[in-house]
Amino acid sequence: MKKNDKSTDQAGSLEFAGGRCGVLLIHSLGGNPIELRFVAQALAREGYTVHCPLLHGLGGGTDIAGLSQWTDWYAAVESAYERLKERCDTVMVGGMSAGGMLALRLAAEKQDGIQSVMLFAPTLWPNGWSMPWYSVLFKLVRDKYSARMFHFRQREPYGIKDERIRKFVLDSFSSDNRPVEDLLGRSGTTLYQFRMMVDAVKRRLGEVRQPTLIFHPRHDDQSDLSNAMKLQRKLGGLVETSVLDDSYHMVTLDRQRSYVVDRTVEFARRQTARVADAAAVARIVKAKGKTPAASTTAAAAE
User: Fold this and answer.
1) What pLDDT does 25 receive?
2) CA–CA separation, 39 vs 100, rounded Å?
3) What pTM does this model have?
4) CA-to-CA distance for 72 and 165, rounded, in angstroms?
5) Residue 153 contacts residue 131 (beta carbons within 8 Å)
6) Mind listing the domains of the chain with CATH numbers?
7) Distance between CA 101 and CA 119 in Å, rounded?
8) What share of the chain is helix, strand, coil (3-state, %, to 5)?
């Protein structure tokens, strides 16, 4: 990959030009594409075309009024997929935390267009050990108006076990006068939309038959390991799960990020080879299928 093959657009998205195999990566709720940068760069070095769009409403600070809905998030993901499909013959999709739910939705909708799925600390519900006790009560909320009464402030370790990396992330917010707990928090309306999205995705988990790779921390502070275990039981295809023992929620940034990156690249290689082998077999079968017909035609001519 050459330096000029990389571009970061003004909207905050990350994009790496590459070959005819594409990877669409989706950031977390309240996050941004930077959290997937190490994964994206590694895949780009392997020759993949990689796109990490900043999604309005899902990205932190992109929906101050709180008016976006989860269907808006998915529409943006679908649009990014269609743009990537124009340049690529095959596409893989991955997502961080809540972004993983959008990746699963896309895989269920585009079964013939998505070859495999990669999930980084996937979250069906934020039930990690650092989440506030009253988050359980939020499950009783049944409308978006009641959801407005809630605000979920985050607290240390903010999904990052490595103190050096955590300090770097927190320092990036130092120019804002608001408490970091609020900046990294989630509004009730946003979490209400997230819950509705998860409910919709759960109903279609069995339709996701593509090979799926899951990374999840054993001691996730924001999303308990039970999230990954439930997905492993419910998904309709082959699932590979790596349980991390030295990371918190942000597995793509934390202490075991090198392991996560290396396993992701290895998984992508295998899936690309699998698709190539299947295409080669299809060509052989097609060629053999023509042989009898050709022989019959020749015999008739004689």
Assistant:
1) 98
2) 14
3) 0.87
4) 32
5) no
6) 3-132+192-296 (3.40.50.1820)
7) 9
8) 45, 15, 40
